Amino acid sequence: MSGELRVSYAALEGVSRTLTVARNTFAERPIPSANGAFGAEPVESAFARFRAAQERSTGWLVDTSRTLAQFAYDTRQLVPDTDTDLARGPAMAVQ
Known about the structure:
The protein is mainly alpha-helical. 76% of the residues lie in helices and 0% in strands. The protein is built from 3 helices and no strands. It has helices spanning 9-28, 41-88, 90-93. The longest helix is centred in the C-terminal third of the chain and has 48 residues, at 41-88.
């Protein structure tokens, strides 16, 4: 039907849960450190740069997962209210 919007609450809830689990996994998993295991300075330096990049990437994944999980959760919460407002008619939906 034209103009009909279908929303899967189960999908939104599933996305929110999955992203929350992913965020927790990224946030809680330790990033390994060399602790002198490589010996040679060039190898230690390369590992340190790699570890710094991994920390930045992990931070981005945590932040992005948190944002997207919140977006899915908020969408799930707001759709019923929006649907009710729209069902009341255009005058009520514009407020």
